[in-house]
Amino acid sequence: MSQTFGLGPNSNWVQLVKAPPAHALLEYVHTKWLEYVAKYSGVGESFQSRDEPALTKGLAAFLADESEIGKQTFAGEFFGELAYFDLEPDGTTRCTRRTDIEWRLYSVPCFIVEFKILDGSAARRNRYLQDGIARFVQGQYSAGAGEAAMCGFLRSAGAGDPAKIEALISTQSASLKCHPLSGPPVVRPSQLVPKLASFDTAHQREAPAISPVILAHVFISLPA
Question: Following DSSP, what letter does each residue of 159-202 receive, concatenated?
Answer without folding.
Answer: TTHHHHHHHHHHHTTTTTTB--BTBS-SSB--SSSTTT-SEEEE
